[in-house]
Specification:
about 230 residues, alpha+beta, seven-stranded mixed sheet, three-stranded antiparallel sheet, 10 strands, globular, transferase, cytoplasm, Acyl_CoA_acyltransferase, leucyl-tRNA--protein transferase activity, Leu/Phe-tRNA_Trfase_N
Amino acid sequence: MPIEPPATPWVLPDPALADDGDLDDLVAIGADLEPGTLLAAYRSGLFPMPGARRGDPTYWFSPVDRGVLPLDGLRVSRSLRRSVREYDVRVDTAFDEVVAACADPRRPQGWIDRDIRRAYGRLHDLGWAHSVETWQDGRLVGGLYGVAIGGLFAGESMFHRATDASKVALVGLVELLRDEHADRRVLDVQWQTPHLASLGVVEVPRASYLELLRASLTVPLPGVFAGH
């Protein structure tokens, strides 16, 4: 089971209070990336992004329109079904490698810096952050990572080195989350992009997302993330 870290000393803003005429996804700047702070943020509906330059304070976001993948809404094309049969999906066997691949500075719009890698590595060591990996012929060819708290899986980033490898990891994650509590689980992907929309990701207003989040936090972790 995940280990609860010391509580954060920071008072984090309530993103629900930003709904009154505030159309900005950014709701706070500062604090730290300690495990207790990160968990408090996710439980509140926030997630961090680093500043533009090293040494900048951390930015905390709660999008006005949140990207969410309904577990019954994943779109699996015929070609993706074929790809699913070509790869092996594993969980938490190469977390650091997945994060490193997602943080590759050669990727366009890369945002994962050394501090983020270290922070999520600590969350992984405590049992809160997880990777879903795609393997082919013994090689890591794709995957994603994120944070699991109760019925919330907050996806952070994904990568691929072979056709459809990241999509297969997403298919694998959805299958892991489809259990007797699936109707209250939330698969959060932060923002909808055209690519994610093609897979079934929808936009949820901030207030609605926070309601979904509160319900999801009462749900037990999926067995694979709970250590059994």
